Task: inverse folding
């Protein structure tokens, strides 16, 4: 089960709920496992269940106006996905795909069971609304970013967010629990791969990140956050 034992990650639906509600939600549905690269949700499919992520990391993937892949968000333990098609009778199809970046374990909860849970617990319905608004806030912010002139601050914001979602502290700084290639990072920020590589070099020059082959680690998280919050600049 998800609830009860461990403090949920800040910013997730589980984090917004009190015990014993967390425990109750964590026990709904059945446990289902996905291998890395497998799709948890296919865009366009009918919404018949929601998923509460128990462990692992998945990408919520969409397409931009040119058909290029955009990583809309990351889902990790404590996140609930697949509620949009389940709750909107006018748009019952999945609006995005969700792809496992590692082994992912979820509670797969049938739509009627999830609706009954929301009917019974208004806190959970309000929590879902809060999460939807947070996603909207991120989407609104992302619209202000032009891909060709993406700033150091924006890259730092996105890296900081990724570390909150799927990062862990190491002896030398912070690393990701799943392998983020430069291609993945470029899709997530989003920016072109060449632009990203050029900008990452500046972060490296300032000792904020280190690159080992295809992957990066964050060696100075405090400075990264300072750049993200506009308290210091690399321009
Ligand atoms: N921009 C986004 N940010 C975060 N999550 C999203 C975003 N778009 C879609 N999702 C999630 O991805 C799910 C895909 O299936 P649904 O449309 O049912 O519900 C969707 C949301 O849970």
Result:
């Amino acid at each position: 089960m998800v609830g009860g034992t461990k403090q949920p990650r800040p910013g997730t639906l589980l984090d917004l709920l009190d015990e014993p509600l967390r425990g109750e939600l964590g026990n709904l549905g059945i446990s289902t496992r996905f291998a890395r690269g497998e799709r948890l949700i296919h865009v366009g499919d009918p919404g018949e269940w929601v998923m509460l992520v128990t462990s692992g990391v998945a990408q919520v993937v969409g397409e931009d106006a040119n058909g290029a892949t955009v990583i809309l968000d990351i889902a990790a333990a404590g996140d609930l996905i697949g509620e949009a098609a389940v709750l909107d009778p006018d748009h019952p199809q999945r609006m995005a795909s969700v792809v496992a970046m590692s082994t992912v374990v979820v509670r797969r909860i049938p739509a009627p069971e999830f609706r009954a849970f929301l009917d019974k617990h208004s806190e959970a319905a309000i929590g879902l609304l809060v999460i939807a608004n947070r996603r909207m806030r991120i989407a609104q912010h992302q619209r202000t970013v032009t891909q060709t002139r993406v700033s150091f601050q924006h890259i730092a914001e996105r890296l900081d967010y990724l570390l909150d979602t799927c990062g862990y502290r190491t002896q030398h700084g912070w690393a990701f629990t799943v392998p983020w290639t430069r291609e993945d990072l470029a899709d997530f920020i989003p920016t072109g791969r060449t632009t990203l590589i050029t900008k990452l070099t500046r972060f490296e020059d300032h000792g904020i990140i280190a690159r080992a082959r295809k992957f990066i680690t964050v060696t100075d998280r405090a400075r990264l956050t300072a750049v993200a919050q506009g308290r210091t600049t690399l321009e």
Remarks:
- The mean pLDDT is 92.
- The two ends are 46 Å apart (CA to CA).
- The first strand starts at residue 30 and ends at 34.
- The CA atoms of residues 118 and 125 lie 5 Å apart.
